[in-house]
Specification:
Layout lengths: L3 H9 L1 E4 L2 E4 L3 H12 L6 E5 L11 H8 L8 H12 L10 H15 L4 E6 L7 E5 L3 E5 L11 E3 L11 E7 L5 E14 L6 E8 L7 H8 L7 H12 L2 H8 L5 E5 L6 H14 L3 H4 L2 H12 L2 E4 L10 E3 H5 L4 H10 L8 E3 H7 L3 E4 L2 H10 L7 E3 L6 H4 L2 H9 L23 H35 L7 H4 L12 E6 L15 H10 L4 E6 L7 H20 L4 E6 L4 H10 L2 E4 L11 H7 L4 E4 L4 H4 L6 E4 L19 H20 L4 H15 L5 H11 L6 H11 L9
Parallel strand pairs: 3-4, 3-11, 4-10, 11-12, 12-15, 15-16, 17-18, 17-20, 18-19, 20-21, 21-22
Antiparallel strand pairs: 1-2, 5-6, 7-9, 8-9, 9-10, 13-14
Helix pairs in contact: 5-27, 9-11, 11-13, 17-18, 18-22, 20-21, 22-23, 25-26, 27-28
The structure holds pyridoxal-5'-phosphate (PLP).
Length: about 725
């Protein structure tokens, strides 16, 4: 039986407006958010991202609330269907490939926590990003991801208020070579990022072009995230995002004056904005009447509405398309606009969309201090306006359950869920023996979860090979005599991220003899736990996975069975959370300065896990002279010759050599009982020095200030609290 209070809460969790019925927030909250997003003053922000990672198995406040209150049914039928979905429905939304998408999800969640009116816009990929299976000989095998937006909690197909029973759709124009216009149609999904208190949310509008009205090839182009089967498909996908933004805003009445481009993928929106502006000025004859000067003036006007976060110095992350191909997709007027704004300065046969995004905005930020320097060198003509706002992670998403219980236990950390800055004030905990004991206990709990997972996986793979053609990827699956080889008392080094060349996943296996010697000399066992996906068309990335599999046996034998290296297939947010919390140190070995920020290391830091990292990205700021972990590798000045991803310039020898000098020190601190306290000190220092900074509340607060967002005074004040903790860019 429901108590009357629960019944009240339940009634309060169902709300509706012209576009649908939603579960998880009250009518009052829905109205409040919608009003802010549609207010004539336009103070909200529209946040554009090609991918958004926000799986429900790492953060699911509505389900948590229901479980906490032991609510299992809803009095009315529609409510009950939604409630059951929240309690028992699927938890994966495979619409992200890596850090960029996770950052988008984390950012939107922090905006929801801080009650800042923001709406996200992205694409819905019915076949998502691929799922990864790994075979010992073939390496990575890509499988289609299966998920159903219809049956995923928190996702709603929006209704058209003017045609009852029909989905709300938008239409965007494409053109063929003869200039004949045709349309792509998208239906709109709403996903809600609801905050922990269930009193605010950030809606994400996901454009779904797989409707029968869209031409088949458009539907195909829209199915997979980062579909790069051809240059045209890739460009089409970008256009499906960029050209969809204004139609979505119009269909929903969204009024944001500020449009935030999370990376340049959606920069096509400027074509809509410039066209709109000129149409307003010169009427339907604008194509004839507007001179080049008028177009440039309109572009300057449009630029005032845009803010831009650039995420990587790596070429593959920058969109450059052959102009002759791209011209097929757009009308003659837009070609004119692009010829004025987007031609690559070194190659006029190419449209450079990163350069265009860099030019057309009122503020640009890079994602760490070092990345600012790099970006200024890559775009010297815009050096003045490029600033730094260092990335963060959503602390409620990435703090493990055991760690959250620890933080809940100590009054010094009271309110940490709402205010990650409390950690800055708790130096005293370092000397608190009860805290140290509990801290170690929580850590051990998480390492045990990870070790159990790996042991179980090894057995599952071994058994699966009888039923499928997949050979178990890990050498240890074949060593039947060793049951449960992973022990939680063994030093565990974690590494997981996208497998792309510059991240150098196999760096520390460069000299196996030396690595094995470090381990055998003192009889220090080590678990190496690896995971990550390579883009299916990235052959060198897939080679890295094969390299990891190949060295397993040799490393094991050379170390007399002390070194156990395992690769976990299917990297996703859930696995990431388990790995960062369960490791004893988190390894990051990119070629400096190509890792613009890196965020998995921040997730480790929030769980009090030290990093061992190249001095790249966020670690330049998070290292604190060794108090929070270790550094290795090249760390001198950066200059353009360091931007190369050529194999020969990746510094494998030098940087692995450097790793072998710090690794023994780490193991000694961990294993020597008289030094172990110092290991724990490093863990705790991550809480006091890094927790307050490398979270998305602080990052959002810097966005608010840097982008001059016009928020209510009490919101400004609240954000000021986080902003005071850190200034990513002292020159600002
Ligand atoms: C955090 C995260 C990433 C990004 O990690 P980096 O350290 O920035 O490379 C990628 N994938 C998943 C699943 C993550 O959770």
């Amino acid at each position: 039986m429901l108590s009357s209070k629960d019944r009240h809460l339940l009634r309060d969790l169902l709300s509706s407006n012209r576009f649908g019925t939603f579960f998880g927030v009250s009518q009052q909250v829905l109205d409040l958010v919608w009003q802010a997003l549609t207010s004539p003053t336009g103070e909200s922000v529209t946040y554009i991202s090609m991918e958004i990672g926000a799986d429900l198995d790492v953060f699911h406040p509505v389900r948590d609330k229901l479980q906490q209150l032991e609510i299992t049914e809803h009095p009315d039928e529609a409510g009950n269907r939604l409630l059951q979905l929240f309690l028992h429905g699927p938890v994966k939304i495979p619409n992200y490939s890596g850090g960029l998408g996770i950052l988008a999800g984390d950012t939107l969640k922090s905006f929801a926590d801080c009650k800042i009116p923001v709406v996200g816009i992205s694409l819905l990929y019915r076949k998502g990003y691929f799922s990864q299976v790994v075979d010992s000989k073939i390496g990575q095998v890509a499988w289609a991801s299966q998920w159903e937006p219809e049956n995923t909690p928190g996702l709603y197909l929006l209704h058209d208020p003017d045609s009852p029973g029909q989905p709300l759709t938008i239409e965007i124009p494409f053109y063929d070579l003869q200039g004949i216009r045709f349309s792509a149609h998208a239906q709109l999904w709403l996903k809600m990022e609801i905050n922990e208190a269930l009193d605010f949310f950030v809606p994400e509008i996901l454009l779904d072009y797989q409707t029968a009205l869209s031409p088949d090839w458009i539907q195909d182009a829209a199915q997979h995230l980062y579909n790069s089967s051809s240059e045209k498909i890739k460009a089409t996908q970008r256009r499906l995002l960029g050209a969809g933004i204004i139609p979505v805003m119009e269909a929903l009445g969204l009024t944001s004056r500020t449009i935030h481009l999370n990376e340049q993928h959606g920069v096509g929106v400027v074509l809509s904005l410039i066209t709109q502006l000129l149409q307003k000025k010169y009427g339907h004859q604008y194509e004839k009447k507007a001179t080049d000067r008028h177009i440039l003036a309109a572009a300057a006007e449009v630029a005032k509405r845009l803010v831009f976060t650039i995420h990587t110095p790596v070429k593959a992350g920058h969109d450059r398309f052959s102009a002759s191909m791209y011209e097929e997709l757009i009308n003659p007027f837009c070609r004119r606009v692009l010829n004025l704004l987007a031609l690559d300065e070194n190659d006029p046969s190419v449209y450079n969309f990163t350069a265009m995004a860099m030019q057309l905005n009122r503020a640009t930020n890079s994602v760490s201090r070092l990345h600012k320097e790099v970006t200024q060198k890559q775009f010297p003509q815009y050096a003045k306006k490029i600033t730094a706002i260092t990335n963060g992670v959503h602390h409620l998403t990435w703090t493990s359950k055991a760690r959250a219980e620890l933080y809940d236990t100590f009054p010094e950390l009271h309110n940490w869920r709402k205010d990650p800055s409390v950690f800055a004030r708790v130096e005293s905990l370092r000397a608190n023996n009860k805290f140290r004991t509990y801290f170690e206990h929580a850590w051990r709990t998480d390492t045990k979860v990870l070790a159990d997972y790996v042991n179980q996986m090894l057995i599952t793979h071994r058994n699966q090979c009888l039923a499928t053609w997949i050979d178990p990827p890990n050498y240890l699956s074949y060593r039947k005599e060793e049951e449960a080889p992973f022990k939680y008392t063994t030093f565990t080094l974690g590494f997981a991220r996208r497998f792309s060349t510059y991240k150098r996943a196999d760096l520390i296996f460069e000299d196996l003899d030396r690595l094995a010697a470090i381990i055998t000399e003192n009889n220090w066992p080590v678990n190496f736990i690896y995971a990550g996906k390579a883009h299916p068309s990235d052959e060198p990335g897939k080679d890295l996975i094969r390299n990891i599999l190949t060295v397993q046996e040799e490393l094991y034998l050379k170390s007399n069975g002390l070194a156990k290296l395992v690769f976990i297939p299917g990297y996703d947010m859930h696995l990431a959370k388990m790995m960062v919390a369960g490791s004893h140190a988190w390894l990051n070995s990119p070629k400096r300065p190509l890792e613009a920020s890196g965020t998995s290391g921040m997730k480790a830091a929030l769980n009090g896990v030290p990093n061992v990292s190249i001095m790249d990205g966020w670690w330049v700021e998070g290292y604190h002279r060794g108090q929070t972990g270790w550094k290795f590798g090249y760390e001198d000045i950066v200059s353009p010759e360091h931007f190369s991803e050529q194999q020969s310039s990746l510094l494998y020898n030098e940087d692995s050599d450097s790793f072998y000098t710090v690794f023994p020190e780490m193991l000694r601190l961990f294993y020597d009982p008289s030094l172990h306290g110092q290991y724990i000190d490093k863990g705790i220092a991550n809480l006091t020095l890094n927790y307050p900074i490398f979270n998305t509340h602080r990052m959002a607060a810097e966005y608010v200030a840097r982008y001059d967002l016009d928020l209510a005074p009490e919101l400004q004040q609240e954000m000021e609290k986080f902003r005071r903790l850190y200034c990513s860019d002292p020159s600002f």
